Amino acid sequence: MIKTEVYEQALFETIKRGATGISPDVKDAFIRAIEKESHADAKKGLQATLKSMEMSKTRENPLCVDTGWPIFYFKVGNNCELEGGFVELENAARRAVARATELGYLRATMKHPLTGYDPGNNIGMNIPDFTYQFVDGDAIEMSYAAKGGGSECFGGTRHRIVAFADGIKGIEKFVIDSFVQSARAGAVCPPSVLGIGIGGTANVAANLAKEAACLRTVGSKHPDPMFAKIEEDLYEAINSLGIGILGAGGDTSVLAVNVEYAYTHIAGIACATSTNCMVARRASTRIDASGAVTKMTSPNWFGDR
Amino acid sequence: MAEYHLQGPLTDEDVVKLKIGDTVYISGECFTCRSRLQKYIFDENNVLPFDTKDRNILIHNGPIVIKENGKWKLVSFMPTSSIRFEKWGAKSVSEWNLKMIVGKTTMGAETAKMMKEKKCVHVSPRSVSPNLWIDSIEVEDVYLYDELGRIEAAWFFKLSDIGPFIVDIDCEGNNYFDQLDGKIEERKQAALKELGIDESFEFTKLY
Predict the structure, then answer these.
(1) What is the DSSP-derived secondary structure letter of residue A2?
(2) What's the domain count of chain B?
(3) Is B205 part of a structural domain of the chain?
(4) Which neighbouring-strand residues pair with B58?
(5) Which end of chain A is more exposed for a tag (fewer CB within 10 A), N or C?
């Protein structure tokens, strides 16, 4: 059985690492973007952003002043045993968020939607958010993603039901139109990691899009060639637009385009987008049944990608 | 495109020479503001508890500031999306006599119109690089901390050559991003064509 103090400390360390450290795959994508950037100002902007993100690791301060919505993903072994059970896991996650806020790794950003009341610790009704996936085994993998206000509030998250009559063309047009609108003047903090959910009900498509944006390894491909082609086509198409870093012009507008899908109803294809901002904050940790804690370089939410 | 290193408080002369696409670095006194502050002043009928005459640069930002050994310490700082306070943009420019707004996403036509009338510019960051800035920002004071909270309070900062920022609305009412929109739209049509989606494509209207 995994002790409460072990998973609580691991949760805290995961939040801190996600808020203050650039993921290796995002760093590689930045290096590639800097190499190919032909606009001098955009190149400087990408270099300055990467330099600042690397400084955050040493300074132990947030990658960006907006530390986002606190969101947890738990990939849980069917035989995983936690002291206090899953209710205590969520309580521990709330305590870890509050502690990370108190110590300045997170900004106190979450507030009441109507009164504006700020609890000062990022804890409130339905926040943090928790998502579970069940697999064989007795370990737990915990991912923390901090979805930024810019990437979430300015049109990066959208949904449309596309008719089967419009098919892939309809999906691709919806995605490109949405992205252009949302990246205008840098609103969603491009270059983005663009997640796309295809199929399911609207909320399933939206969740898939968010997970594709926040949890896929940047640079990975969907294993199904049909979806990999959509990823590649949209990556090329969007990067040909010249939106660039913070929308001011440049060669890289998306760091990645990741598609995930679900079967859908004969009536139509739910299609959703979710952009993650360029800092793409996340971190993941695995705890084995023995209590051994391992830092993961990628969330492993989608297994091979 | 020219590059300027400006010292606040800014004069009309400082800002009228700025053209869209120019690069600026900023020094001097400024204050932070998020839309909660404008709502508090303009909708909830409170009086701004400080003078903006010698502090006429508004930075749209909710910084992370902590207290360390009895002194305020800036942990992180990044200008954010100004379009959120478009509702009070023109009023902020005219009543607070602003000469510069630092923020993201540019602003709308009403604010740009007032900027032209009052001589004020909007500038946007070129990077997300708080660590390259925070050592050059001194936290001087804070107002409305109890009323609006730590993030949405008005912080007084003293900046030392912070930048680069791109001028996206100038005193003539020109908008850098409006001009870029046209080019992006052209490239979008070409990209859609490449994917086999021509201009005649229309979505089947399901709702």
Answers:
(1) B
(2) 1
(3) no
(4) B31, B101
(5) N
Domain that holds residue B73: 3-177
pLDDT digits 0-9 by tens, A210-245:
999 999 999 999 999 999 999 999 999 999 999 999
Q: Kindly report the CATH number assigned to the domain that includes residue B164.
A: 3.20.130.10
DSSP state of A243: -
CA angle centred on B60, ends B56 and B62, rounded to 5° = 125
**Residue numbers in A near B75 (CB within 8 A):** 61-62, 104
Enter the tokens of residue B83: 């379009």
pLDDT, residue B81, reads: 92
The pLDDT assigned to B55 comes to 97
B183 contacts A242? CB cut-off 8 A: yes
Residues of A in contact with B176 (CB under 8 A): 248
Q: A247-260 pLDDT, tens per residue?
A: 999 999 999 999 99
Written as six digits, the tokens of B41 are 């002043």
Please report residues of A whose CB lies closer than 8 A to that of B183: 242
CA distance A62 to A247: 22
Number of alpha carbons in the 13 Å side-chain half-sphere of residue A273: 32
Give the ipTM.
0.94
Supply the pLDDT for residue A155. Answer: 85
Percent of chain B past pLDDT 90, that is, above it, reads 95
Closest Cα in chain B, distance from residue A3 (Å): 33
The whole-angstrom distance between B162's CA and the closest CA on chain A is 13
